[in-house]
Amino acid sequence: MPNLIWKEWREQRWKLGFGCVVLAATAYIGLHARMIADEAMLKWVCALGFLLPVLSATGLVPAERAEGTLESLLALPVTPWRILLSKTLMGLLLCAGPMAAAAAVSVMLAGGREMTSDDMIVFYVRATLATLALFIWTTALTIHLPNETRAGLLGLGVLMFWVMATAALAFPPIPWPALAISPLSFVFKSDQPQYQPPLIGMAMIQAVVTAALWIWASTRLATGAEEKS
Amino acid sequence: MRQLTALAWKEWHETRAFLWIALGVFVGLPICGGLEALYQVPGRRFEIIAFPWVTMLGSVLAVFVAVGASCRDFNGRLEDFWRSRPVGVARWLLMKYVVGLAVVQVACLIPMILEMLTFRDSDSRSIMAWFPFMWTAVYGLSFLAGCMVRRTAHAAMLGLGAMLLVNFLPMILPPLEWMNIATAQLKTVSPAEHRHFAAGMLGLAMAALAVSILGVRCNWRIDSGRRMMYGSVSAAFLILFASAGYQLGTNMPILQQIDLPAGQRVANIRFLGATGYLETEAWLPGPGNHYNSWLRTIDVTPAGIELGSPITKHDDRWISLYRPSAPLQPQIAYGLFEEGDNDERAVVLTVHDLISGNLPSVPLPLTFDNNNPRAVYPALYEWKDRLYVMGTHLITLDISRPTVPRIISDTPWDSVNRKWGPANGEDKYSLSLPPIPDLPPQERIKAVLFDLDLFDGEVLCEETGGDALDEYRLTNLTESTAEFEKVAEYKETMLQMIFGGYRYWDMKLMNGLLYASTGGGYGMFNPSVSVFATRGPQPLREVGHFAAPGAWMAYPLPDGRAIVGGDKLYLIGPPPQHGD
């Protein structure tokens, strides 16, 4: 297992650096220039962060399928779920790392200016949880695709679907457990407290949903890709 | 010649699919929209409105056609095949370039011609005049990307990055303003500026074409991979974002900020005489959801501002803030109210005391015909100790005792068809002034203007269409008319819209500066305040910007500072170029 994680780290670490630089630079430029209110700028940074699941999920399995290295990996004396677990851990780091870098820059630059540092951290934690849940969704739905391009398009489709579905589920308001199925419910804010999903409740529902998705994905890792086009 | 014809036929054969697809989108979808409008609004003319599709997607089409044309024959051994033919590289590439560019221009211009023929209010002439230069530049740069990278997907990403830079960089970097497509479309732009724009875009395209030919002839290649693609697109994004920060960044210092009570936000700031008033409001949830409002005085000193205690709560007296008030006793405000159920309604003068509430109304010898579409609603204006009512009669009231207005003259007057109110973007604009001998002509202009805060005696500013500003200068003033000429217009840039500018909402003109707040909807769209210089050789030049939570209205003070209201109250300094 450590060897698998080491392999993923060696292959994907440039994406971690890339994500950290882009997200932290966006937060720095936006908050330093004060183009818009700080909270609005954090929303922009987090919206950019929602592309991280697409970037990371498509590069883990579909890219290996396209390059023909997944077969070699599956031929190793290790169970497929361990392979997927190592890739998942790396993917989660690719999503959470840049968000943490952006949060650190934001708190250092603008903490206590318009928002308190605590509010900023809570904001980023919620956005990071949404990003992690989106990563699991994207991984599960793109795991059988033969190349990064198709996986990327489907990943963007998943993101757009959940953006629209969350908006549709929120108006008119529905009971929060139904809304909490959406990975974006972590960042949903309702004016009416009774429709605001509690963080713990959302996290529990999302844990169940993402665990089911991950198990489903692990069964599909070794079943082969769709026909290459 | 036969060789060129054969090459042209081959390119056309391979590129024409883009033309049909583009026409399907740029013509087909507007036709669907036009038919839908016919169905929804009976009696409406059939209109093809293609400009949103063409202006938004024309550059994307240019990228795809250019990349397709250039990469197609560099695939695998096709390049070796073409190099083995008895045709020069320049000739072969030029034909690709010309045919692809022609497809882009035809695909974009046909819909605009159809729009011009069917849509009366179309601005298609300016689009057809200037957008083709930008499409040519984007096409040239994408063609260069295709020739250098030779991989379709990667070249398309680079082309899209170049498209973003050509579209947006001139909008946000002042030194590149001469290449701004948004400016080139404005009617107030001089022919020289138009020539500079066209020459700049064509120069970019020609340079890209020259490098493309040289690169292919010398077999220059750029090895592209994932890192390069991600890196180049992210670099383009960060360059644009940093440039947007340069244009839209806050550059007015916060001198003081005051927290409002929890949940309250600023609804209005007004100065009546020397006394400032701040109205705040808060949404109270629960049974009978409603807004509560509070009124406080604002005390302005050189050291800062101080708020008084709330003087009224959940009362409709705040409406007095929007009314003319008595110069001798500013908290006394006046309004007009229609009485009766007839079409021809009697008008009374209402008197409000900001502190104690409504006072007895004054009946006026005035009616308003609700059924006459040409009738102009009576205007109300105060000056010194006189209050003027201008409708079917010209009535002068003495307000030396502000709580008890007294009619001192009444002259029948026909206000029908008088031209009052906003200019609505016209190049020349004249106002009919009411014949009130006691009132100086400058004051008469203010009396019939829609918004008093937008005229400073010489300059008149207005918003048109929500996202544009016009500046007019007074050119001729007589006893009966005031004539204005448009000297500048400013259209909100796409980046300003992206970063929250929804529409110009609240505007004030003072000290030669126009403070324009964008937003509306109480902060839903990240409001901010932009400041424009109205004097000097370059009117409506943006000199300041301020953004803070809910900052949706500004009240400039005579000393150059300004009070900005939002989720908090801010006292800000003047823009950098206008500080002491």
Secondary-structure class of chain A: mainly alpha
Return the domain count of chain A.
1
Number of strands of chain A: 0
Number of strands of chain B: 25
Beta strand % of chain A: under 5%
Radius of gyration of chain A using CA atoms only: 18 Å
Shape, principal axes of CA atoms of chain B = elongated
Mean pLDDT of chain B: 82
Report the total helices of chain B: 11
Instruction: Name the assembly state.
Output: heterodimer
What does the secondary structure layout of this molecule look like, with pairings?
The complex is a heterodimer of chains A (229) and B (580).
Chain A: H1 2-33, H2 38-49, H3 52-60, H4 62-67, H5 70-74, H6 80-110, H7 117-142, H8 148-170, H9 176-179, H10 199-221
Chain B: H1 2-40, H2 51-72, H3 78-84, H4 89-118, H5 124-149, H6 152-172, H7 181-184, H8 191-217, H9 226-248, E1 254-259, E2 265-272, E3 275-284, E4 290-301, E5 304-307, E6 312-313, E7 325-326, E8 329-339, E9 344-353, E10 357-369, E11 379-383, E12 386-390, E13 393-398, E14 406-412, E15 428-432, H10 441-448, E16 459-464, E17 468-477, E18 481-491, H11 494-498, E19 504-510, E20 513-518, E21 528-533, E22 541-547, E23 553-556, E24 562-565, E25 568-572
Antiparallel strand pairs in B: 1-25, 2-3, 3-4, 4-5, 4-6, 7-8, 8-9, 9-10, 11-12, 12-13, 13-14, 15-18, 16-17, 17-18, 19-20, 20-21, 21-22, 23-24, 24-25
Helix pairs in contact in B: 1-2, 1-4, 2-4, 2-5, 2-6, 4-5, 4-8, 5-6, 5-8, 6-9
In short:
The complex is a heterodimer of chains A (229) and B (580). Chain A has 229 residues and is an all-alpha fold.
